[in-house]
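name: query_chain
kind: protein
chains: 1
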Amino acid sequence: MIGITKAEPEDLEKLLELQYSAYQSEAQIYDDYSIQPLTQTLSEVKEEFHKGVILKAVSDGMIVGSVREYADGNTVHIGKLMVHPDYQGKGTGRRLLSAIESVLYRKRFELFTGSQSERNLHLYESAGYTRFYEEADKAGVIDIYLEKNC
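structure:
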């Protein structure tokens, strides 16, 4: 059974380790191992912790997933939805997305993913998100921005 709760400051190192593991598949898709989730530092994760909300998914005492959000006006920005490779494809990401949407209520949720991240796009669109903007990042990867209005 996987439980989802708010992360605590003592979880941040484990969350960063999970992030480095979970984002390897994204790095492979784009053949770029310098993506932000793989270069983020612990101090940057601590800043995100104090800026918003981080949830963790735990199974048998091990953090197997996480997601982050912060509010900006009427919009909640969701990011770093990640699941340990051994737990992917089992609904953990969908449960985390649903849980984070219920923490900070605003009129609109926004997130983004790379255009070639088909599993991510499928998850977000099946959860009611629609594409509204595309932009190339510094490496030339097309990021797709999605929103969900409540």
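note: The first strand starts at residue 2 and ends at 6.
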